[in-house]
Amino acid sequence: MLKLFAAVLLLASVALAVDDYEGYKIYDINARNAFEKQLLLRLSGNEAYDFFDLPRSLDASSRVMVKPEDQEGFEHLLEKYGVNYSVINENFGESLRQERDENQNQRLMNLRSAERSVSFKAFHRHAEINAYLDELAAAYPSRVSVQVAGKSYENRDIKTITITNGDGKTGKNVVFLDAGIHAREWIAHAGALYVIHQLVENFAANSDLLKNFDWVILPVVNPDGYEYSHTTTRMWRKTRKPISSACYGTDANRNFDFHWGEVGASSYSCSDTFKGETAFSEPETQLIRDILLSLTGRGKFYLTLHSYGNYLLYPWGWTSALPSSWRDNDEVAQAGAAAIKSATGTKYTVGSSTNVLYAAAGGSDDYAFGVANFPVSITMELPAGGTGFNPSTSQIEGFVSETWVGIKAMAEKVAEKY
């Protein structure tokens, strides 16, 4: 009966009105010199253009989504300055319709056949993810506990799962992993679920990771935004607390009170990188703050999952200067990158956030490192799929299993060091 009810809800969700992105184009742009890179940086400040990424390196391209009424002017500007570009998706709306249908079909198949609430063949909704955590707590009570860490602005439960080896020892060091600060980065949520699956359901193969460390995992930091990206606006990034009658949400990864608002964050409330009206204005960021501070002393490794770009990034995000202990972070990140390269051939770029990508103050990784005193704090940007943020369901398992290889190697390196 429960699965039947879930199926009815799933089918009903298909009928909800959505932003269809009809006629939106995705551009791939290669800046060949510093002038062109600076031009793209200036264009990224224009709210008409949604830059999916803006790498600092000249050998990495940028992807930009542009709505139909702005495409002619955008292309004219690029051509005026001789910037090379290609259109990699002529109608993003059509791609998203295919994605939505494919994902609904996979979720229905999982409801009919699976013993658990999630699989790694679909992107699951917030309620399904929470149900999976509760199932694990019921099935493995000596090793798993689930807590409602707090509520989102729209009153959704934000749950953490604590995973141990069941030996009853208290006061162990902790790995804290979260995902989904940015709503549209669905593969990050799936990556967190796969880590949970490996530590709990594949315990025999991974018990060494739990010998001297407990793991605390928060798989959906921003459930309001995540649900909104499923039901209404697929490319929604922020939280959902209203700022004005016209603008909703804050970029939660610009909202932490460490060099808040200094660089790489917008004061314009409709911007995708809006820093918030104050630091920690969002219940979701307050919750992460409280968890991080509660783990000060025990917390040795903070890992936050994002997408996309194949990056392993460490502090600082607010300045190009490096912290005195940057080599410890680099050593851990390099271990993850090397393990992934060896296993699958996929290359991850390693470095500080500002020097590899761009400056962005107010991030959770800087706060974990600079305030909560986690000695290792890393942002992992998972691979691109589709046109960037929208991997197909057939790519999920490959991406998350590859990600696990890197996370396991990094956790092993942290265990060696601490």
UniProtKB/TrEMBL annotation:
<feature type="domain" description="Peptidase M14">
    <location>
        <begin position="122"/>
        <end position="414"/>
    </location>
</feature>
<dbReference type="GO" id="GO:0008270">
    <property type="term" value="F:zinc ion binding"/>
</dbReference>
<feature type="active site" description="Proton donor/acceptor">
    <location>
        <position position="381"/>
    </location>
</feature>
<keyword id="KW-0732">Signal</keyword>
<feature type="signal peptide">
    <location>
        <begin position="1"/>
        <end position="17"/>
    </location>
</feature>
<protein>
    <submittedName>
        <fullName>Carboxypeptidase B</fullName>
    </submittedName>
</protein>
<dbReference type="GO" id="GO:0006508">
    <property type="term" value="P:proteolysis"/>
</dbReference>
<dbReference type="GO" id="GO:0005615">
    <property type="term" value="C:extracellular space"/>
</dbReference>
<dbReference type="GO" id="GO:0004181">
    <property type="term" value="F:metallocarboxypeptidase activity"/>
</dbReference>
<dbReference type="Pfam" id="PF02244">
    <property type="entry name" value="Propep_M14"/>
</dbReference>
<dbReference type="Pfam" id="PF00246">
    <property type="entry name" value="Peptidase_M14"/>
</dbReference>
<comment type="similarity">
    <text>Belongs to the peptidase M14 family.</text>
</comment>
<dbReference type="InterPro" id="IPR000834">
    <property type="entry name" value="Peptidase_M14"/>
</dbReference>
<keyword id="KW-1015">Disulfide bond</keyword>
<keyword id="KW-0378">Hydrolase</keyword>
<dbReference type="InterPro" id="IPR003146">
    <property type="entry name" value="M14A_act_pep"/>
</dbReference>
<keyword id="KW-0121">Carboxypeptidase</keyword>
<keyword id="KW-0862">Zinc</keyword>
<keyword id="KW-0482">Metalloprotease</keyword>
<dbReference type="InterPro" id="IPR036990">
    <property type="entry name" value="M14A-like_propep"/>
</dbReference>
<keyword id="KW-0645">Protease</keyword>
<keyword id="KW-0479">Metal-binding</keyword>
